[in-house]
């Protein structure tokens, strides 16, 4: 310990080996200490104290690894719920489009593309988390996909279980951002495919189909409008097949995941920058914003979980987030802005004219 830090005092506090050190910059040394201790079954923690920094050495929590077919089973079931959901959404193909669009081959093709688009967005999102955790030396489980309700929501996403502690705030930030960032990139690819697959028609034709109820309209995130400037056709509007809904859903999930609420990926990102009290206030403020923008069921569910919030404090709770990661928050906020959707009927939704 003395080879890495300037030790002032050594003691046993409540049976735990504790070191008071005078160092202020400990990020690199602490990570080296973590690697040394974890190899023999212990982990260090670092907290600020009156004298400087208090290091404690604790037994590493033992997490049993179990081999299970459950992730594979859930993946298969989720593929089925997404496929059925896609078929339901494709069943109402508007008669105003070409007759070829209603052929069974076209329907199967569109539904299959929709299925792999959604499972790809979610899978890439979760693998982003897993790869980031692997880089930081943290073991994690395979993704557990959550089947949805066809016709309502094709899937409720997926979860990965972390099997080790997070060392510092940089690692906490990286694990939090890796999923939404990779999922966002995957959603952009799906959006490009959606524009390529779209049927283009005049605004007047589109309005007739909307008025007759043959096609539905969803509020577009800003990223759709940006894409239309580069991929669109002058004077025409795109009528997307169901893969357009996959791109839309991917963008909405990205924006929601980035919000600074305890249970979401954004919770880890913003907790790496703020303390638990500030982060808690930010979480409740965001819940209020969700209610105003139409996400009332989600807001109430998150509020229920926040009754017993879990703090994502890393082992090294002293070292600050790196400068470049702080700077990247500008990009994260921008990502939220271009992917967020205000739902129809909410207090902040714009009034659509026919």
Order of helix and strand elements from N to C terminus = EEHEEHHEEHEHHEHHHHHH
- How many domains make up the coordinates? 2
* Strand content bin: 5-15%
What would the principal axes of the Cα set say about the shape? elongated
Q: Order of strands in the sheet with the most strands?
A: 1-2-4-3
What does this structure look like?
By secondary structure, the chain is of the alpha+beta class. The chain folds into two domains: 7-59, no CATH class; 70-339, no CATH class. The protein has helices at 27-38, 70-90, 104-135, 169-197, 203-211, 222-231, 242-257, 265-271, 276-292, 296-305, 323-327, 329-339; strands at residues 7-13, 16-21, 42-48, 53-59, 144-149, 153-159, 199-202, 236-239. It has a four-stranded antiparallel beta sheet, with helices on one face. Strands 5-6 form a two-stranded antiparallel ribbon. A hairpin with a 4-residue loop joins β3 and β4. The longest helix is centred in the middle third of the chain and has 32 residues, at 104-135. Mean pLDDT is 88; it is low at 93-100.
Task: Briefly summarize what is shown.
This protein has 354 residues and is an alpha+beta fold.
Characteristic terms for this protein:
about 15% strand; four-stranded antiparallel β-sheet; about 350 residues; alpha+beta; 12 helices; 2 domains; about 50% helix
């Amino acid at each position: 310990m003395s080879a890495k830090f300037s030790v002032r005092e050594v003691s046993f506090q409540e049976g735990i080996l504790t070191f008071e050190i005078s160092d202020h910059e400990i990020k690199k040394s602490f990570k080296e200490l973590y690697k040394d201790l974890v190899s023999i079954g212990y982990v260090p923690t670092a907290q600020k104290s009156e004298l400087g920094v208090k290091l404690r050495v604790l037994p590493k929590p033992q997490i049993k690894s179990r081999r299970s077919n459950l992730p594979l089973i859930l993946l298969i079931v989720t593929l089925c719920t997404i496929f059925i959901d896609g078929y339901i959404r494709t069943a109402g193909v508007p008669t105003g489009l070409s007759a070829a669009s209603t052929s069974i081959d076209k329907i199967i093709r569109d539904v299959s593309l929709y299925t792999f688009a959604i499972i790809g967005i979610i899978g890439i999102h979760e693998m982003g988390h897993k790869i980031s955790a692997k880089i930081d030396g943290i073991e994690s489980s395979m993704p557990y996909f959550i089947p949805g309700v066809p016709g309502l929501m094709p899937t409720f996403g997926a979860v990965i279980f972390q099997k080790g502690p997070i060392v510092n705030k940089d690692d906490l930030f990286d694990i939090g951002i890796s999923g939404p960032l990779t999922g966002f990139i995957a959603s952009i690819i799906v959006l490009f495919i959606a524009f390529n697959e779209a049927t283009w028609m005049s605004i007047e034709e589109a309005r007739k189909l909307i008025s007759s109820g043959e096609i539905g309209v969803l509020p577009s995130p800003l990223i759709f409008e940006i894409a239309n400037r580069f991929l669109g056709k002058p004077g025409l509007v795109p009528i997307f097949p169901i893969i357009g809904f996959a791109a839309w859903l991917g963008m909405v999930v990205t924006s929601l995941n980035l919000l600074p609420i305890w249970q979401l990926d954004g919770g880890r990102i913003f907790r790496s920058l703020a303390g638990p009290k500030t982060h808690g206030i930010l979480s409740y403020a965001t819940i209020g914003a969700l209610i105003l923008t139409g996400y009332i069921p989600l807001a109430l569910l998150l509020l229920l979980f926040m009754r017993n919030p879990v703090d994502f404090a890393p082992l090294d709770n002293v070292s600050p987030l790196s400068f470049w990661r702080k700077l990247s928050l500008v990009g994260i906020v921008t990502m939220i802005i271009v992917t967020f959707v205000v739902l129809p009927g909410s207090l902040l939704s714009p009034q659509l004219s026919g």
